[in-house]
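Deliverable D4.2, example record:
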Amino acid sequence: MLATLPGDFNRDGIVDGDDLPVWEATLASNGSADADADGDSDSTDFLVWQRHWGPGALVNAVGTGVAVPEPGATALLVAMVLVLELVRRRQSFSAREDLPLSIASYL
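Output generated by the structure prediction step:
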């Protein structure tokens, strides 16, 4: 019998550490902790539990997961904007002809 969520062997709606003892108790004896629908409780069912362990399993099972940008991508975007702004400022600064070219012109 398949669990409600893959790896939720105690059927409490969460794939967590409480499911592991259920799997261990039924390992190679019956299909009570059968997450892959092959009729027995074996190491493949453990792998299903391991892959779905944690609070993210419920979100993924319901299908309400939302894509969130990686922190590294956000940092890269910010760095790119800063570099472009620096280049723009440097180009506009060097384009000014009314600025003195050296400190000597102030003396």
